Amino acid sequence: MIMTRDSFPKKGFTILELIIIIGIIAILTSVTVLVLNPAERLRQARDASRIVDLRAVNDAVKFYGVYGGLSYGSSLVLYVSLPDTALTGNATSTCPNMGLPALSGGWSYQCVSGANLRKVDGLGWIPVNLSGLPPGSPLPALPVDPVNTASGGSYYTYAVGSWELTAVMESEKYGGSGSIAATDGGSASGLFEIGSNLALTPASNEGRKTFVSNSGSKVHASDADFGGGTNSGTAVSGTGAAGSVGLANVLNTATDVTTGQGGTAQASGSYSENRAPVYAFNDVLSGDTSVAWLSNTMPAWISVDLGSQQTIGRVKIYPRDLEGARYPKDMQFYGSNDNVNWTLISSFTFANNASAHWETFDFSNVVAYRYHKVNVSTNYGAAEVGISEIEMYAYGYSSSGVFTSSVIDTGQSSTFTTLSYTAATPSGTSLTADVRAGDTAVPDGSWTSWQTGIASGGSLSALGAKRYVQYRANLSTSNSANTSSLDDITINYTY
Question: Which of 22, 52, 68, 401 has its CA 20 to 30 A from that of 173?
């Protein structure tokens, strides 16, 4: 007998075996996808359920209209799928103390009890009596959001006039650019909107939440954000809820701001022309005539026009080096911006009249004045007071400083895209930003080098994919009256 190839029995898969194999492949594929991005897959599943739910409700309401529906609900009321746990029976409420965003334009919320929430007879969260339709309700029960909490905006809404239904999309697939939420004809980004009028929902509700993207940002804007950084040079963290980073306003003890201002000095009176107030600001200490101011009365005052507003924090006084009885004793220091109305800045006492010497008076002051006055209310017994020299020192911003942020954790390996910031750079000031990144919580040799001189909106693509990032702000000024300041900074990334 001759055996041919066709004579051998054929062997293949049974239907049962094929089903089992296909099932295994499907499971493995599902597991693989879930492992790759389990959170996103769960978000997509919830979003898909939301779309199915609202399409079913929309069809039911449309069907209600076909059969001559009479009541769709009240205008300017936003019906939500959240139960008010304080309600019983058929009572309704405006959803107080539930953490819902405030509504504008006369709108209000409506909630029902948990027992009524899913009813289709008009007592549920959607006030349409679907049970009265001739064939009966097309829905066995009203759906609610898979999460259904006020936190994060995860709830359904219904508005009347005709009607509009909304649900938050939390996945990139269904809520991102080009998704169903972006192309449904509604005005709200990240919301799935369906109905006969997609312009009903108030704008204050539209932004209740956006989808969870595969991108993120780290924002530093508060005092707490800036407080985690370190100051190099004289940069300092701001204070208050908003926070900011600027240059330190420090007392410049090296520069007497009265230098060259003697010609603008005034006084309550002078003993003679050669003992005029100008001589208290001529940088000459010894002698009598033409080197010191001598009043002709007591009490007495002497003032100077600094030519510009200055925030004075130190006054130094050297008395006329003759009789100690003419030394000033109790003094008051005033400031003015019109040379008419004066504000008391500080009071101090020249405590020693044994011999001529400098005494220095430091005080706290945050207000700048152009005119400054020293009033001598008492001296050491003479009918006049003599002062050889007065010096004043002002606060001013340090010329430069660097603020380095804390290390910022994105939570996973991320590709940094752009940096943006809000900063103030008055005349004579500047601010630049540098950024670096790495995969260790503490910067080390594996981190990238600093990417320097980044303008707001600049690219961070050179950093590559890293988990951690850090920035520094370089501040400078050539004007002691101004400082640059960093108010907030945002680092954007994808993963």
Answer: 22
